[in-house]
Amino acid sequence: MRQRLTAPLLMVVSGTSMYLGAAIAVGLFDAFPPVAVAWMRVSAAAVILLVLNRPRLRDFLGPVGRTAAVYGVVTMAMNMTFYEAIARIPLGTAVAIEFLGPIAVAACGSRTVRDWLALLLAGTGVVVISGATWATDSVGIVLALAAGLLWACYIVAGSRIAGDAATSRVSTAIGFSWAAVIGLPLVVVVWPDTLTQHPALTFGLALGLGLLSAAVPYSIDQIVLRQAGRAYFAVLQAILPVVAAVIGAIALSQWLSTAELVGMALIVVAVALRRP
Fold first, then answer.
1. Is 238 helix (H, G, I), strand (E, B) or coil?
2. Which pTM does this prediction carry?
3. Of 194, 172, 199, 189, residue with least CA distance to 80
4. 135 three-class SS
5. Torsion of CA 177, 216, 152, 34, to 10 degrees
6. Among 161, 160, 155, which residue's Cα sits nearest to residue 234?
7. What is the dihedral of CA 21, 27, 30, 33, to 10 degrees?
8. What distance lies between CA 70 and its chain's CA centroid?
């Protein structure tokens, strides 16, 4: 019972932090390409987590380092496609469509009629939302779907580093560090020739972005993965579209249509039905 209450609450905290950071990211899109902002997010989180966890140099190599690197690169790719999506469609809509990834992971762990009903409701909700938005920006929908595929990969990769608390924190720091290094050549190509913002402001926003959108939520994800397991964690992700919609409305004035709200309600009901 305690787990059923704690895990959803932690996901609300994680989502609030993540999408407040996403609101900051949208503000940076005027000065930087979304891909560069996503790299800044992961890189800033890597710096924060390295300072807090201080992994040993040998931890970056060998099987542990390789597993963490896969997790980090998948996370960065997910962030890049997601940021490209929210540059085109509302935050809440993008997150709801992206939820197809967790639905696929949850399906792998479903055994009962109740579980499958929850997945059917969640999938229907995503279809309703995407249908309402396709005519507005099909590219944004495709990018959100790609982010959803990477979200599924993120859950699988994250479960492989979700050992004890200390190990998962170190692995997250290592993974983000590798992602920052591997993604650097791409960012160099797309980086703007001239900056429209003061470098100090950009640095401060990047740190805030890394803390809110990566360091805090992904650390919470590791806690929830250990508590709830991969299948239930995947369904719990359905809380995030609601959090994103609320923050999108408050911080970005992105109000959703009736159809999008109906689709989101179906996703919320799916979370309530699915048991750990």
1. coil
2. 0.81
3. 189
4. coil
5. -70
6. 155
7. 10
8. 16
Distance CA 148, CA 123 (A): 12
**110-118 long-range Cβ contacts below 8 angstroms, 24+ apart:** 110/231, 114/273, 114/274, 114/275, 115/273, 115/274, 115/275, 117/273, 118/235, 118/269, 118/270, 118/271, 118/273, 118/274
Contact assessment for residue 132 and residue 259, using Cβ atoms and an 8 Å cutoff: yes
CB–CB of 151/78 below 8 Å? Answer: yes
Using alpha carbons, list the distances in angstroms from residue 83 to 19, 76, 109, 262: 11, 10, 29, 24
Round to whole Å and give the CA distance between 236 and 36: 29
Element holding 54 (H helix, E strand)? none
Q: What is the total count of domains within the chain?
A: 1
DSSP 8-state symbol, 87: T
Q: Which residue has the tokens 């924190």?
A: 169
Q: How many residues does the chain have?
A: 276
pLDDT digits (tens, 9 = 90+) for 31-80: 889 999 999 989 998 998 899 888 888 889 888 889 999 999 999 999 99
Task: Give residue 223's domain range.
Answer: 2-273
In the block, residue with structure tokens 């580093």: 161
**Distance between CA atoms of residues 212 and 203, nearest Å:** 14
The maximal CA–CA distance of the chain, rounded, in angstroms, is 57
First and final C-alpha spacing in the chain: 10
Report the Cα 109 to chain-centroid distance in Å.
Answer: 21
Residues with Cβ within 8 Å of 145's Cβ and at least 6 positions away in sequence, in order, are 97, 98, 100, 130
Report pLDDT digits (tens) over 203-253. Answer: 888 888 888 888 888 888 888 888 777 777 777 777 777 788 888 888 888
